[in-house]
Amino acid sequence: MTTSSLLRPALLLSAGLLIAGCASTPTKQSTGEYIDDVAITAKVKTALVKDDAVKSTEIKVDTFKGVVQLSGFVDNQDQRAAAERDATGVPGVRSVQDHIALKNG
Length: 105
Hints:
By secondary structure, this protein is α+β, with helices and mostly antiparallel strands. The chain has three helices and three strands.
């Protein structure tokens, strides 16, 4: 047996483990999904900052597999609706979970 024939199975096993390590599961993101979600989160935060109707400093944004979760506190229902509308308008957002609470309610 040559050295190359001995290395071939080890290289195939290593490549298989590397590919499996990047795979997505229902509770874990692939590397590509993670990068996409980071970009989506940044775009949603930017949209919130640009909207004068939203108190963006009091809204937290989390993204998992394209699903954006908004949480935090706002003064009224109009601010809550504006935040959800802003998040929904970002490309790549599959859905928005609105967990924003009203300060007075």
